[in-house]
Amino acid sequence: MAAGYAELLRTRHAARLLTGTLVGRLPSATGHIAIVLFTRAEGGSYTLAGVLAAVYGLATAVGQPLLGRAVDLRGQPRVMLPAAIVSALGMALFAFVGIDSLLLAYVAVAIAGLFTPPLEGGLRSLWPGVLKREDRVHAAYAMDAVAQEIMFTVGPLMVTLIVSLWSAAGALLVINVIGVAGALSVVVSEPSRTWRSAPREAHWLGALRSPGLLALLGSFFFVGLALGSITVAGVAYADDHGQESVYGWLMAALGLGALLGGAFYGARKWTGAPERRLRILVGLLALGYVPLAFTPDVVAMCVLAAVAGVFLAPSLACAFIVVDRHAPRGTVTEAFSWLVTTFGVGAAVGTGVAGPAIENGSTAWGFAVAGVGGIAALSVLLATVKVLAVPGRTTNITGSSESDRKGSVEPGFSTEHQA
């Protein structure tokens, strides 16, 4: 599959868009970690750290679909770059005011989350115009999920390294400056500048009028909850073992497992309904989260974290296809942004629940929240089998650029345009 990924990346604009999006998403990918470490460095409790991270996640959850809808209506550059700058300024404010003024701290992280640009959904709306064929777009989803895990592996290590060499406040500033640079790289590219969403039916619910999409979002809320709880429980585990670096290794192991799982998933061409495949993948994901509650020694815990991450990237890659099949026409960026939103809400709830669970119980209780979240995610998919069995469209590959209208499109691949 490495050769297949290399072929995709040789397509004009593909490597730049993927790299720019990953770099631009660094603040949102590591924001919870950076907030928790900064709050603890300032003398705040686990509960305060969890609540601040939860506020950031909830604000992101509110902002993503709103900004995603704005992108569908107004295009990417007009929305994404200003949003990235405002988000970075919000996190810079948090770094400077600290937790001495809790009101300002809450406002700062809320601004940073609310204006997080919807780069993830934006990239997936650009793939059709860049890659032209549906099979290549689905391969790009798998590549995208694998590449994300590189970021989730490197990102925590980068944050902890900056904290060690400089400070937790410095980490907040650096990752957000890098994020703005990534967003800038994306929005000045030709595909981003010329992309337009397909015409959409006016409806106040937008993408949320799809029952299948709602079922998918309900499941991935609990996947986000599991990951959010691991963020806080990992810090407590590192404190228990007296080494701050343990946290970075745990998060990196989780990302490495997802990276390996995503690479294996992308190496095969899958047949059958993706909805059924998603149930299997989420079930295996839930099974991997449960043993974390045993909290063994550091080496064994890193192994368990890696195993727990194996089915995350495959689950995400499969979920992207399911979003395509169920999202209403003309809502592509918004629909993918809702997936990011449910993840964010779930992660926020997970961080908010894990803090008190640790303080009132133990570190194991914090990891137990992850196991419960995984089981709940699978339960939602099992309860909505009939809803997910009826996709809104066979494919919902939407959006294009002006340049695409002049080129050829492979037979059987439907693109939709808006003049």
Automatic annotation (TrEMBL):
Organism the protein comes from: Streptomyces mesophilus
All copies of domain Major facilitator superfamily (MFS) profile, residue ranges: 212-419
Record's GO cellular component terms: plasma membrane
Entry keywords, A to Z: Membrane, Transmembrane, Transmembrane helix
Membrane topology note: Multi-pass membrane protein
Keyword Ribonucleoprotein among record annotations: no
UniProt key word Electron transport: no
Region (Disordered): 398-419
Protein name stated in the entry: MFS transporter
Membrane spanning stretches: 46-67, 103-127, 165-189, 210-234, 246-266, 278-294, 300-323, 335-358, 364-385
UniProt-listed InterPro entries: MFS, MFS_dom, MFS_trans_sf
Compartments where found: Cell membrane
Gene Ontology terms for molecular function: transmembrane transporter activity
